[in-house]
Automatic annotation (TrEMBL):
PANTHER family linked: SLR6007 PROTEIN, UNCHARACTERIZED PROTEIN YJGR-RELATED
Name assigned to this protein: DUF87 domain-containing protein
InterPro entries in alphabetical order: HerA_central, P-loop_NTPase, T4SS_component
Ranges of residues in domain Helicase HerA central: 363-564
Gene3D superfamilies recorded: P-loop containing nucleotide triphosphate hydrolases
Organism from which the protein derives: Staphylococcus condimenti
Pfam family, one: DUF87
Lineage, opening ranks: Bacteria, Bacillati, Bacillota, Bacilli, Bacillales
Coiled-coil region(s): none
Length: 705
């Protein structure tokens, strides 16, 4: 719509349009870039103005180039004014795109002016581009703060500058109204009060900058996945992230049309930061309307004795225009359409999903990391509930006491009701036989395990837990082999205990002492005709908790390792990649992660048998330090990182980003996470395409699911 574009140029800066028309015959890259740049500024002013619509301040954008041009026309000295050569070199380049001036009117007819610089970037906006924009915005803010807001030693000159900017404000407001861009009666009333405002004492304030931002960087980035607001970042700069296509599509839209899209939530940008109830009122009440001298640029301030956080909060599901794809459909036989809600992209209203049923996923494994107290267990309950909604059974092996009934969220228990099933292993014992002879798949041909195979498997687990050493491992293997020859699959640890006690050798007594905890407890029931894994994963949407409380940590590890091998062997025989087997293991750093372990085998080969392992940990480093295969962990196609321990931030960022600049950005994201926030690194569906994304996400709480 060329008419809208031309009108926008004429209002903001007519010389831009003349410059583009004058170079229309050229096909150079420089000309193309100029067109892209100016169109992006037009789109940016409409977008930012729409976002600011929610505040009590009446904002108007002004081109900084236009400000300089008008100042020269009015005879201001190019060497001494606020935008002199000297000031423009104030510690580097200064933002030269947009300056939003806002007027907050008082009951007595006077007004308070606020300033908000906006820098616009379009194209491939990497970390260096964003950093440059932040520097430019900060420098411009310092200039404005020095000359217009903070009390000056030259009050006459400062008052002249204030009137100059106030007149610019009303001049541009008039252009916006006369061109039909702004039609709000409140704005028209403000224009009618121009004389009253200008004849009163002019006040300029940085309260908005103090509470919200020094400036906004608007980034129209190629292949950007989500529209969102990030920040405030270091230096109190907001980042508004849009897609490059928005720069050209939105430039030609009418302002009212784009405003409706943004305010209705259609664009997916969070509006909460600029609403009328925000912190600006508290700042004005406490500090008045003058300057704030102790500006520190942080996003958390203490007001009236209470800590206020201006980070963008979780958006309620009722506010979302996007309809969840998750439905409780009992007739659904295919998993293909299953999407598991994770949360809301921070700074956006757009939801992000684990595309659980998408056949394009490399696997359905999930890695969850983060230090204690950040919301990992709560998040796991959210996912388990989502699975139940989709009639997908899940298994939780709880050796941390985190899934005991008193520890579970009341919403979780109420929503699941009869679908929450706990089996107490200490009371009932584990219904498995560690000495059962399994089949080995030789590429379509099945062969039964030999006694030696069974002995190797059992000794491997016991050695991992009790650290037997070569001699004791050999002796235990020999004892198991002899027991299998005599008792077959009727062999038990109680029998092995008695056989060791019957031997008189010191080696046998030493081995017995080493593993006596296992031999005395013998936590297996061996023959339980009522138990099959098919009953656990029956498509009813049950959350099955195998509760291991009551056993010591070494026995809990033994139980878990044997359980994983047994379930893996079951899935090898009967598993199907289209019927997932979600198994949750919290604090999984306590398990065996070596090459021959069941955990590593599941991560590397389990996908084709339906495995969906959910592995949660506070410390990935401890796995690496113990000789575990961390590469297999990062094979998980969905990774959720809550705030990590300080010494693990760098390691986590290296697994997400490859280049140094991107890693630094991820590190900043990880360091700034609050409770209930996480970095999602995985695949999600955008515009009907499966794309890998790395986004900060606010977890959607249970009561909104």
């Amino acid at each position: 719509n060329m008419e809208n574009i031309i009108r926008s140029f004429n209002i903001l800066n007519g010389e831009w349009l003349l410059s583009i028309i004058g170079s229309r015959s050229s096909r150079s890259l420089a000309v193309d870039n100029k067109v892209r740049e100016k169109l992006s500024i037009i789109a940016a002013y409409k977008t930012v103005l729409s976002l600011l619509e929610e505040s009590d301040i009446c904002w108007i954008p002004i081109s900084l180039e236009e400000i300089i041009r008008v100042s020269r026309q009015q005879g201001l000295d190019a060497k001494t004014d606020v935008f002199s050569t000297k000031e423009l070199k104030h510690n580097g380049a200064i933002s030269d795109d947009l300056l939003f001036i806002g007027l907050e009117t008082k009951e007595d007819g006077s007004g308070v002016f606020h300033m908000l610089p906006v820098e616009v970037k379009v194209g491939i906006n990497d970390k260096s581009v964003m950093s440059k924009a932040a520097t430019q915005l900060s420098e411009l803010y310092q200039v404005l703060n020095k000359h217009l807001i903070k009390d000056s030693s030259k009050p006459f000159t400062q008052n002249y500058y204030r009137h100059f900017f106030a007149n610019l404000y009303f001049g541009n407001l008039k252009k916006f109204i006369e061109n039909g861009v702004i039609k709000d009666p409140i704005n028209i009333e403000i224009l009618n009060r121009k004389t009253q405002v200008l004849n009163s004492h002019l006040e300029f304030s940085n309260a908005f900058n103090y509470s919200i931002a020094k400036g906004i960087g608007v980034f129209f980035t190629d292949l950007n996945s989500f529209r969102k607001i990030e920040g405030p970042k270091e230096g109190n700069i907001l980042e508004l992230h849009l897609n490059e296509k928005d720069a050209y599509v939105d430039a030609e839209k009418k302002y009212e049309e784009l405003k409706d899209e943004i305010l209705s939530g259609e664009k997916g940008i969070s509006l909460s930061l600029f609403n009328k109830e925000n912190i600006i009122k508290e700042v004005n009440e406490k500090y008045g309307t003058g300057s704030i001298d102790d500006f520190t640029g942080t996003n958390k301030k203490q007001f009236n004795g209470e800590n206020e956080n201006t980070d963008i909060p979780v958006i309620s599901s009722e506010d979302q225009p996007l309809t969840e794809a998750i439905v409780n459909d009992t007739s659904k036989n295919s998993i293909e359409d299953t999407r598991i809600l994770l949360g809301t992209v921070k700074g956006s209203t757009q939801k992000i999903f684990w595309e659980y049923g998408n056949y394009g996923l490399p696997n359905r494994h999930l890695l969850i990391s983060g230090k204690s107290g950040q919301g990992k267990t709560y998040f796991m309950q959210c996912l388990l509930y989502e699975m139940s909604k989709n009639k997908i059974d899940s298994l939780v092996v709880d050796y941390t006491d985190g899934f005991l009934m008193p520890q579970l969220e009341s919403d979780f228990k109420e929503k699941l009701n009869d679908n929450l099933i706990t089996k107490f292993i200490y009371r009932d014992k584990l219904p498995l036989n560690p000495f059962k002879r399994n089949s080995i798949d030789l590429g379509g041909m099945l062969m039964d395990e030999t006694n030696d195979d069974i002995a190797d498997r059992v000794v491997q687990i016991i050695d991992f837990v009790f650290n037997l050493g070569i001699q004791q491992s050999s002796m235990l293997k020999e004892e198991i082999n002899r027991g299998l020859e005599i008792y077959g699959e009727n062999l038990t640890f109680s029998i092995i205990k008695q056989r060791l006690l019957d031997e008189e050798s010191n080696q046998a007594q030493t081995l017995h002492g080493r593993i006596s905890n296992l031999l005395n407890k013998d936590p297996f029931s061996y023959k339980d005709e009522t138990f099959t894994w098919n009953n656990i994963f029956s498509g009813k949407g049950n959350v099955n908790i195998f509760q291991l409380k009551g056993y010591s940590s070494d026995i809990q590890k033994i139980i878990t390792e044997f359980l994983l091998w047994d379930l893996y062997n079951f899935t090898e025989r009967e598993g199907n990649k289209d019927h997932p087997i979600p198994v949750l293991l919290d604090e999984m750093q306590n398990l065996n992660h070596k090459e021959s372990s069941p955990t590593t085998k599941i991560l590397k080969e389990g996908r084709k048998f339906g495995w969906s392992s959910w592995l949660a940990t506070q410390s990935i480093n401890s796995i690496k330090n113990a000789g575990g295969d961390t590469a297999a962990l990062y094979n998980a196609a969905m990774q959720i990182h809550f705030a990590p321990p300080e010494d693990q931030v760098a390691n986590v960022s290296k697994t997400i980003a490859t280049d140094k600049v991107s890693r630094l950005r991820v590190e900043n994201q990880l360091n700034s996470l609050s409770k209930g926030e996480c970095v999602v690194n995985g695949y999600t569906q955008i515009n009907d395409e499966l794309q890998r994304v790395t986004e900060v996400v606010d977890i959607t709480p249970l009561d909104e699911r």
